Amino acid sequence: MRLSLPLAKYSGDPQRLRFFEQAVARIGALPGVESAGAISFLPFAGLGAATDFTIVGQPPPPPGQAPVVDVRVCDNGFFATMHVPLVRGRLFTERELRDKSDVVIVNEALVKQHFPNEDPIGKQLVIDMSDSPPATTIVGVVGDVRYMNLVTAPRPMSYWPHPQLTYSAMTLTVRTAADPLALAPVVERAIQNIDKDQPVSDVRTMDQWIAKSLEQARFNALLLAVFAGVALLLASLGIYGVMSYAVSQRTSEIGVRLALGADEGAIVRLIVGNGIALAAAGLAIGVVLAVVLSRTMSALLYETSAWDPATFAAVVVTLGLVAVLASYLPARRASHVTPVEALRYQ
Predict the structure, then answer these.
(1) What is the secondary structure of 68-109 as a DSSP string?
(2) pLDDT tens, 18-30?
(3) How many Å separate Cα 180 from the centre of its chain?
(4) By the 8 A CB rule, do 127 and 55 touch?
(5) Which pTM value belongs to this model?
(6) How many Å apart are CA 49 and CA 82, to the nearest integer?
(7) What are the structural domain ranges in the chain?
C-alpha cells in the first residue's frame, strides 16, 4: 500500500522517518504478518528514479556517456518481505537506518557491469541525486529484481537507507501467512493508530501488480490466439476442400481400378496414402517456415521459447488428421460407387 505524508504536517525529515519507522514496526508485530518493510518505488508500479553515477578511483567517463543507475530508498524489511537475497556483504545497520550515512547496497547487475573481476564491497559511488552528492560506500550486494516488467532485464540498481534520501511517499510491503487482502484492514488500522488522518492508496497484492503489468502482453496474446485459431480453422477447411476435390477428380480412375478387380480397401489405402504423403510434405515445409517466423514472437514471451515443441506437435497432428479425413471420407464414398457410375465421370 502507498502512503503519501502531507508536507504541511510532516515538513521535516525526522518526522517522516519516525512515521515510517513506527508504521513498519507496528505492522510487523501484527498477528499473521511474517515481515514488513518500506520502499520508495515498488516493482511493477511504473514509478522510479534513475540518475548518472561515477565510480571513485576510476577515470571519469566522457561527457554524455556516464553510466546510469536506478535509485531506491528502502529498509531491511523490504529485502526480507520481497525475498531479495543478500549475495555479498551486509544489509543496513540500525544506525544507518536511523541517521544519515553514506552507504549504499547495489544489485548483481551493477556488479557484473562495473566490477566484473573485483570485490565491490568498500568501493565508492558518487550518485548524482543532489547538487553536491557525497561518495557512498558499497556495503552489500543483493539479488536482481525486475522493476519495469517481466521482459526487461534487471538494470543496475542502488538502494539507499531512508535517511540518505528522505521521501514523504513510500510503499509499505507486507508478507502475510494467509490471504494478504484479508489482513489489509488490520494493517490500515495500525497506520491510523499512528495518524488517524493518514490515508492509504493502491492496496494490492504483488500478484495484482504483476497482472497489471502484463495487461498489454495478455491482450496481444489474446489477439494472436484468436487470429491463430482462425488461421488454423481456415487452413483445416482449405486442406479438406483441396484434398476432397483432388479425390473427386480421381473418380474415373477409381472406376477403372474397380472394373479391373481392385477391392474397396485397396482403393481407400491408395488414395489416403497419397493424401498423407502430400500433406506430410506441406507440413514439413510449414514447420520450417513457422520456426523461422516464430522469432518475431520472442519479444512477447517471458522465459518461454517461441519454438514450443508441444505447440508445433499439436498443430501438425491437427492438420495431419484433417488431411487424413479429407482423403479418407471422399475415398470411402468413391469406393462404394459401381464401375459404371464411376466411368461416367470420364
Answers:
(1) EEEEEEE-HHHHHHTT--EEEE----HHHHHS---EEEEEHH
(2) 999 999 999 999 9
(3) 22
(4) no
(5) 0.72
(6) 19
(7) 2-213, 216-343
